[in-house]
């Protein structure tokens, strides 16, 4: 490999060459680079005394080029980067080898007259200070770049590890790595270096992690072992393994990868979820396989045997099953009555279009999952439009804590942020409850979030009569759009609701439609919504179901979502509002609703109303939130 690159370099006719020099912090002298170009097919960047980074200019709406650090190793991998051709939207850092005297970066598929060549630069630093007005204040986001599914969630030695689908080379999907953040309280997150990088086998797609307490894999007691899908055109989608002996900071990829491939050559075969099945002393892996989930077993985490499948014809169809998880929970807190919940993320298939999370309640005997309900029954974990790829932490004992991705595949790449794209919804604790003869999951924000409360405002009880309003003009002085609301109300009206507003006339309308039996959140007038006109429905959604199911549909972002509402007169709502999101938990988490919003100014006013009857607000407590 080294010889071939050398020969290429010597034979190139330099059609354009540009040199830039920057004074480096390195004691070895000046850092500089030279561009060696030939046509539009190849550019070599020769770097002397490399700094920490080569800063690459990005233009989001341009085709991808390919960037590779050339070392001569067979593991050298091209990264897809949308290098700026007409304008520079932002820069991304491309890491260079530490302590090297020289470095060579190869760039393909970028024309010689592109603007990037005059803007590319060397630097020992990369500024990650927030410059995005919609970045949440207390939700987890990447420092920069693109993020989607949470991966490999695991708890060990007092730390929660949140890995995630990550593109460090742009704020749109691509170059799937596992990004990494850790927390000791599920509230404050520390960003760590990439844990698993895209390699020659493919992108590092979603997966899971376990703590191998008894050394079944042979890497030592307590080793974190992770499973992921390697995805490429050449290899398809195959399941791979990596292990960490330093508490999840760095990983070694298994030398005999892959550990599992589809026995029927299936194209969509991904997102391995692994857990320990204590009754039979074995590991179980669930893999999403098109429109079903396949179950495999292993004693050593390396050799896997097919057991069964579940899902064909169940739930929302047609759709792609993704990101499985399966947890066992006590029903109504009764430890002698437990059920399994199979969590199935689907795309498309959301009630309101795009991606969403459903679940099935049933029994698991170590080989087969048997669902309690008929195939056509659909149970949604969340009734908003921005809740997907929900998976749970492993190794958390009796607690079951889930983390969703807070976006929707219809418009995730075009939301009005740029330094980063996508956040995680708040961590939620899952429980089970019975209602009649059926069993459901309740979803509630983890109790650790109470640590975010910085200022409290309590509103005395009041009544809103038909056609009247009760308005709180200012929620918090200098409000920054980050607060929690706890409301207890009794309704004798057809509709009881409230609006979250700002001074620009933008508002979110949240109401209980007692006549229709629906909790509704309407974001049509919430702020920036026009990008929804450019949302791209999945080809399987070439129908108007999402239009019919939504309320007040304008486009695939500007609409109202709804969840089922009981006929009870008294209801409790807990809301978490952040810069770009609203999460609602109704009646102890029996209904959860997660939706993005992009107000041009933070919401800081609240107005209650009642229609065709009166509403009594028994309690209204507000908390300003901050880290």
Topology:
Elements: H1 2-11, E1 19-22, E2 31-38, E3 42-48, E4 53-58, E5 65-70, E6 79-81, E7 90-95, E8 102-108, H2 116-119, E9 121-123, E10 145-156, E11 159-167, E12 177-183, E13 190-196, E14 203-212, E15 223-232, E16 236-244, E17 252-253, E18 269-277, E19 282-289, E20 292-298, E21 305-310, E22 320-331, E23 334-347, E24 356-364, E25 369-371, E26 379-380, E27 388-392, E28 401-406, E29 420-421, E30 423-424, E31 428-435, E32 438-445, E33 453-459, E34 462-464, E35 469-472, E36 483-491, E37 495-501, E38 507-513, E39 518-522, H3 545-549, E40 560-564, E41 570-578, E42 581-586, E43 591-596, E44 605-611, E45 615-625
Parallel strand pairs: 10-29
Antiparallel strand pairs: 1-2, 2-3, 3-8, 4-7, 4-9, 5-6, 5-8, 10-11, 11-12, 12-13, 14-15, 15-16, 16-17, 18-19, 19-20, 20-21, 22-23, 23-24, 24-25, 24-26, 27-28, 28-30, 28-31, 31-32, 33-45, 34-45, 35-44, 36-41, 36-45, 37-38, 37-44, 38-39, 39-40, 41-42, 42-43
